[in-house]
C-alpha cells in the first residue's frame, strides 16, 4: 500500500463544504419547552391547527424514550442544549432574488447551487433552505402554469392550509417514533410539492438543505403529494460546515401517491461526518415514508449517503393500493469512525404489490455500517412480490458491515427473494489494476463504482455523476 | 535474437528481497537486452514468481538490497502504476477476478494511461472498440468477453488470453510472463505462444517464467536461466531447457555442488 505519509496527506484534505457563512442570524434561547414551541409557531405566523399539531406532538414526545436498539453508539444528546430556531436576520421571504442577502446567494453559489436568474440550473427548480428557513424557490411561476405547487412548507401553510391539514401527519403520525414526535413539535422549514391530476411535472424539483449554525438542530419537514395520474422527480441535497460538536438533524419526509401516480425521490447526502478521530459531525435521524395510496401507483427512493457521524434512516413504502410498487436503491458509505444503521421497510398491504430493495454498503476505516430491512406481507396481499439484494464491501481490515433483514409474512401466496453478498477490496485486485498503469485512487474508484453500478443507474443523471465523484472523494486515504 | 548494439532494457544487480520477513531472493543478477527472449526455470519455491512480482512492484515484497534498472532508470523508487506506464508488463500466473469492473472499460483506461506516457493520443470509447476488436484476433477471443467483468467467470485459458490481449494493447517494452503456460491445454497454449511471438520485436524484450519445456518448443528463447534458492544458478541456451527436461533439476544442483568442490 502507499506509505503512511502519502495516506496521511490525502486524509487531511478538507471537506470542501466545511466553511461557515458569516451572516447575522437570529436565534432563540436554547432548550425545549411549550413556550419555545409557541414562539416558533408565532414567528412563522402559523394558524391554530398547526400550533395544536405541534403541541400534541410535544406532549407525546415527553412520554417517549429515545430508541436504543440500533447498532449505533454515540454520546447522549442533551435536548436542552439545542437551539430550536435560527434564521438569517433579514428573513421574510423575498419576492425577488434581488432582495435576498447576497451573502446567502454566494453561499449557495459556492455549493454549486446558483440561485440568481442568469446562473440557475435551467431544468431544475430549487428550494434553498438555510438553517431553519427556506430563502428562495426558483421557477415558481413557470411551475404554477402547470398547476404544480412547489414552495416551502411555511408558505404552503399560509397559502394552502387545507392541503397541508389534509395530508401532513397522514403518513408519519407524530407518535410514530421519538424523532418524528420531536420533529412534529419543532419542525422548521422544508419543501411542499403538490402535483395535480394528470400532470407530469415538467422539471425536476430539488431542495437543498444547508446547516450553518452549529448549535441549532435542523428539523425539516417535507410533504409531496401526487394526485391521480401525476408524476414528479424530486432531488434532495445536503451539506453542513465542520463543527467540533455534533449537530442534530431529525427530519420527516412524507410522500403520497394516488391512483396511477408516481414519485421518484433521490438524495445525495454529504453532511459533515466528523474528522478522522470522530470529533464533530451530524447526527442524522430521519423518518422518510411513502404511502402508495392509489392503485398502480409507484414510489421510488434512491439515495447515496456519505456524510453524517451517525445515520438512522429507513425510507419506507406502505404499498396499500392494489398493484402498487415500492423501490429502494441505496449506497451507504461509512469511513473513519462513522456509524450507520440504515435500510428500508416495505409494507405490503394490497394485492399484487411489488417491492425491490437494492442496498450497497461500503465500510472503510474503523466505521460500522449496518443494513436493517423489513419486508412485511399482510394477509390481504395475495400475489405480492419482493426482491431484496444487500451487498457489503469492506475496505481495509478494520471496518465492519452487518445485515439485519426481517421478513414477516402472513400471506402464503407471496413471493419473497433475498440475496446478500460480502466482498473485500483485496490487495491483489488493487495491484492488478495498478500493474496496468491505473493509479491507486482511480483503481479504488473503479471498483467501488462497479459495486454501486445498480444503484447509480437509478439516480437522475446529474446526481449519478456527482455520486461517483463524491464516493471517490470520501474514500481518499481509506486503504493502506 | 540478440544484436551487438541492442539496448540494455533490464538490469538486475545483486537483488535481495523478502516477503513477510522471509527472505526469498538472495542475490539475483540478470541482464536483458532489446529483442531478447529469456526463460527462467526452476523448482517451486526457487523465487521465480517472486522475482516477477518484485520487478512489477507488488507491495507485499520488500527489496532489502540490490538494484533494478529499467532502461537505465532506477525502478525501485517507482510505484507499480508508474512502472506499468513506462512499459513493464506482468502477465499473472493467477489473474485475479474483479467483479463489477467492466473488462472493456478497464482495458480502455489501461491503454490510455500507456498511450499518454508514449505521447500518443488517448482513444475514446468508439476508437478503442475498433482497436480492441483488431487485437482480439491475436488471442482468438470472442468480443463477448469485453462485456463481462474483468476475468469474472473466465476459464483458466480465457484468463491467460486476456493477459496476452492486454499485452497486445499496452505494447510493453519488457513483458514478464509468470507461468503463463500453467493450466493450459494444448490449443490454448498454442494461441498464447502465437500471441507472444507476434508481439515480440527487436525493440522489446520478454521474460518467460516457466516450469515446462513445452512452452519453449513454441517460443524460442535466446537464454535459459535456472533459479534455485533465490539465485540464478546457471545460464545457457535453448539446449539447457531440453537437458533439464531429460534430467530434472537435481542435475543442476549436482553440477553446482561439483563446481563448488573444485
SS-based structural class of chain B? alpha/beta
Judging from the principal axes of the Cα atoms, what is the shape of chain A? globular
Q: How many β-strand runs of chain B?
A: 12
Query: Low-confidence parts of chain B lasting 5 or more residues at pLDDT below 50?
Result: none
The helix-and-strand class of chain A reads alpha/beta
Amino- and carboxy-terminal Cα gap of chain A: 5 Å
Q: What is the share of helical residues of chain A?
A: 10-25%
Measured as a percent range, the helix fraction of chain B is 25-40%
Q: Work out the oligomeric state of the chains in this entry.
A: heterodimer
CATH topology of the domain at 8-96 and 174-261 in chain B: Rossmann fold
- Count of helical segments of chain A? 11
| Average residue-wise pLDDT of chain A | 83
Note down, in words, how this protein is organized:
Chain A has 480 residues and is α/β, with parallel strands linked by helices. Chain A has one domain. Chain A contains eleven helices and 23 strands. In chain A, strands 5, 6, 8, 10, 11, 13, 15, 16, 18, 20 and 22 form an eleven-stranded mixed β-sheet that branches. In chain A, a hairpin with a 2-residue loop joins strand 3 and strand 4. Chain A is globular, with a radius of gyration of 22 Å. Residues 1-14 of chain A have low confidence and may be disordered. Chain B is of the alpha/beta class and 262 residues long. Chain B has a domain at 8-96 and 174-261: P-loop containing nucleotide triphosphate hydrolases (Rossmann fold), CATH 3.40.50. Chain B contains nine helices and twelve strands. In chain B, the strands form three sheets. Chain B has a six-stranded mixed β-sheet, sandwiched between helices. In chain B, strands 2-1-4-5 form a four-stranded antiparallel β-sheet. In chain B, strand 1 (8-19) and strand 2 (22-33) form a beta hairpin. Chain B starts with 7 loop residues before the first strand and ends with a helix. The A-B interface holds A 1-2, 423, 426-429, 431-440, 442, 446-447, 449-451, 453 and B 56-60, 79-81, 83-85, 89-90, 92, 95-96, 98-102, 105-106, 109-110, 113-114, 117, 149-150, 166, 170.
Amino acid at each position: 500500500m502507499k506509505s503512511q505519509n502519502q495516506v496521511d496527506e490525502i486524509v487531511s484534505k478538507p471537506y470542501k463544504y466545511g466553511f461557515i457563512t458569516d451572516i447575522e442570524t437570529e436565534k432563540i434561547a436554547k432548550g425545549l419547552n411549550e413556550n419555545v414551541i409557541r414562539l416558533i409557531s408565532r414567528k412563522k405566523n402559523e394558524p391554530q391547527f398547526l400550533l395544536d399539531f405541534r403541541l400534541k406532538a410535544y406532549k407525546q414526545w415527553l412520554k417517549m424514550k429515545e430508541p436504543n436498539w440500533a447498532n449505533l453508539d454515540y454520546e447522549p444528546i442533551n435536548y436542552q442544549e439545542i437551539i430550536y430556531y435560527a434564521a438569517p436576520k433579514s428573513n421574510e421571504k423575498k419576492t425577488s432574488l434581488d432582495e435576498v442577502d447576497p451573502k446567502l446567494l454566494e453561499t449557495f453559489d459556492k455549493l454549486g447551487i446558483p440561485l440568481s436568474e442568469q446562473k440557475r440550473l435551467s431544468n431544475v427548480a430549487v428550494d434553498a433552505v438555510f438553517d431553519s428557513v427556506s430563502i428562495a424557490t426558483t421557477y415558481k411561476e413557470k411551475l404554477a402554469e402547470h398547476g404544480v405547487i412547489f414552495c416551502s412548507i411555511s408558505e404552503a401553510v399560509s397559502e394552502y392550509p387545507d392541503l397541508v391539514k389534509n395530508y401532513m401527519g397522514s403518513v408519519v403520525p407524530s407518535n410514530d417514533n421519538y424523532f418524528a414526535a420531536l420533529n412534529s413539535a419543532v419542525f422548521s422549514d422544508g419543501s411542499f410539492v403538490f402535483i395535480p391530476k394528470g400532470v407530469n411535472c415538467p422539471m425536476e424539483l430539488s431542495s437543498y438543505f444547508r446547516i450553518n449554525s452549529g448549535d441549532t438542530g435542523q428539523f425539516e419537514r417535507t410533504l409531496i403529494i401526487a394526485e391521480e395520474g401525476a408524476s414528479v422527480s424530486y432531488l434532495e441535497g445536503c451539506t453542513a460546515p465542520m463543527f467540533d460538536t455534533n449537530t442534530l438533524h431529525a427530519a420527516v419526509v412524507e410522500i403520497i401517491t394516488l391512483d396511477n401516480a408516481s414519485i421518484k425521490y433521490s438524495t445525495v447526502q454529504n453532511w459533515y461526518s466528523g474528522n478522522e478521530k470522530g470529533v464533530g459531525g451530524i447526527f442524522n435521524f430521519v423518518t422518510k415514508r411513502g404511502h402508495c395510496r392509489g392503485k398502480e401507483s409507484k414510489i421510488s427512493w434512491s439515495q447515496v449517503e456519505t456524510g453524517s457521524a451517525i445515520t438512522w434512516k429507513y425510507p419506507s413504502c406502505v404499498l396499500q393500493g392494489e398493484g402498487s410498487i415500492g423501490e429502494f436503491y441505496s449506497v451507504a458509505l461509512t469511513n473513519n469512525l462513522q456509524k450507520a444503521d440504515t435500510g428500508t421497510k416495505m409494507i405490503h398491504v394490497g394485492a399484487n404489490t411489488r417491492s425491490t430493495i437494492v442496498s450497497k454498503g461500503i465500510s472503510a476505516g474503523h466505521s460500522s455500517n449496518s443494513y436493517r430491512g423489513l419486508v412485511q406481507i399482510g394477509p390481504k396481499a395475495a400475489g405480492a412480490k419482493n426482491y431484496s439484494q444487500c451487498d457489503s464491501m469492506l475496505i481495509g481490515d478494520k471496518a465492519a458491515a452487518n445485515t439485519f433483514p426481517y421478513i414477516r409474512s402472513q400471506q402464503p401466496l407471496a413471493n419473497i427473494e433475498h440475496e446478500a453478498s460480502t466482498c473485500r477490496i483485496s490487495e491483489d485486485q488493487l495491484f492488478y489494476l495498478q500493474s496496468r498503469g491505473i493509479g491507486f485512487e482511480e483503481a479504488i474508484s473503479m471498483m467501488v463504482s462497479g459495486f454501486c453500478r445498480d444503484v447509480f443507474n437509478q439516480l437522475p443523471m446529474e446526481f449519478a455523476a456527482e455520486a461517483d465523484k463524491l464516493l471517490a472523494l470520501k474514500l481518499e486515504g481509506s486503504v493502506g | 535474437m540478440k544484436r551487438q548494439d541492442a539496448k540494455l532494457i533490464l538490469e538486475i544487480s545483486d537483488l535481495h528481497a523478502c516477503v513477510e520477513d522471509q527472505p526469498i531472493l538472495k542475490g539475483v543478477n540478470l541482464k536483458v537486452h532489446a529483442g531478447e527472449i529469456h526463460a527462467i526455470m526452476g523448482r517451486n519455491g526457487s523465487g521465480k514468481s517472486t522475482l516477477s512480482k518484485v520487478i512489477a512492484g507488488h507491495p507485499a515484497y520488500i527489496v532489502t538490497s540490490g538494484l533494478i534498472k529499467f532502461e537505465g532508470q532506477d525502478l525501485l523508487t517507482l510505484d507499480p502504476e508508474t512502472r506499468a506506464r513506462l512499459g513493464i508488463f506482468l502477465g499473472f500466473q493467477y489473474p485475479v477476478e474483479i467483479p463489477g469492473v467492466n473488462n472493456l472499460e478497464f482495458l480502455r483506461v489501461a491503454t490510455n494511461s500507456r498511450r499518454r506516457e508514449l505521447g500518443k493520443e488517448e482513444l475514446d470509447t468508439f476508437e478503442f472498440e475498433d482497436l480492441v476488436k483488431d487485437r482480439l484476433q491475436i488471442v482468438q477471443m470472442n468480443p463477448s468477453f469485453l462485456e463481462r467483468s474483468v476475468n469474472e467467470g473466465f476459464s483458466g485459458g480465457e484468463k491467460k488470453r486476456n493477459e496476452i490481449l492486454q499485452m497486445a494493447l499496452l505494447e510493453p517494452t519488457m513483458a514478464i510472463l509468470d507461468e503463463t503456460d500453467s493450466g493450459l491445454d494444448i490449443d490454448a497454449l498454442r494461441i498464447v505462444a502465437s500471441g507472444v511471438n507476434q508481439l515480440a520485436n527487436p525493440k522489446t524484450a520478454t521474460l518467460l517464467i516457466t516450469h515446462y519445456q513445452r512452452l519453449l518448443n513454441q517460443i524460442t528463447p535466446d537464454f535459459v536461466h535456472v533459479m534455485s534458492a533465490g539465485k540464478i544458478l546457471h545460464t545457457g541456451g535453448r539446449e539447457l531447457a531440453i537437458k533439464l527436461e531429460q534430467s530434472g533439476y537435481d542435475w543442476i544442483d549436482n553440477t553446482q555442488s561439483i563446481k563448488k568442490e573444485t
